[in-house]
Amino acid sequence: MTHQIKEEDGFKYIEAGKGETLVLLHGLMGELSNWEQVIDRFKDRYHVVVPILPIYELPILTLGVKALSRYVHRFLKYKNFNQVVLVGNSLGGHVGLVFTVAHQEFVKALVLTGSSGLYENAFGGSFPRRESYDYVREKVEFTFYDPATATKELVDDVFATINDRSRVIRILTMAKSAIRHNMAKELSKITIPVSLIWGKNDKVTPPEVAEEFHELLPNSELNWVDKCGHAPMMEQSEIFNNYLEKFLDRILLK
């Protein structure tokens, strides 16, 4: 990452730019670097903030999607943010949904990409062969349309994470919480604008998940990204950023 991580009062985050605030929420094993190309594209026009979700720090007995939503609430209040645009990938999208249902007054708009919350082939469901580097590489490649997107650096990071006993227990706990917390009956409460930016070849949260989100969210748009898996902001960053820019122009520059 080219951006420095700030640490204040128990919060860790990246912050760049000025203007309307975009808060980017990473996935279960997502790194802040997943958002690097989004930060670089929008930091000249917007205030871009990426908090590190405390998946490895919260007490394991309370760890879950709701606990991360409460953390986001504390963070936004600490930073005195109001009327932000939440942008979430995978678990980060799920956390954004839970937060928005509880605190819609904080959120001007929501962007979901490969979000859990309805159904997912959970990457973190189990790791029966986590000591095998080849197995881990295959699991990471499954996330993308083009296996080459799963760089050695990315595979090395995931391999180290899931072979850390403390961390893998937390990942499994978090994944089970996400699967249990189905949002279908709550989505109609979200009346703010929502943009769904989805990989046409997403195998973790397949296209039918995006279509169901679009049907259940009353003020949503659905944008497809061809030749793209579960993380469009990484794999097809220019297309993702173009969709995001058009959405922001429509809702923020009226």
TrEMBL record:
Q: InterPro entries per the record?
A: AB_hydrolase_1, AB_hydrolase_fold
Q: Which residues form the AB hydrolase-1 domain?
A: 21-235
Q: Where exactly are the transmembrane stretches of this chain?
A: none
This chain belongs to the protein called Pimeloyl-ACP methyl ester carboxylesterase
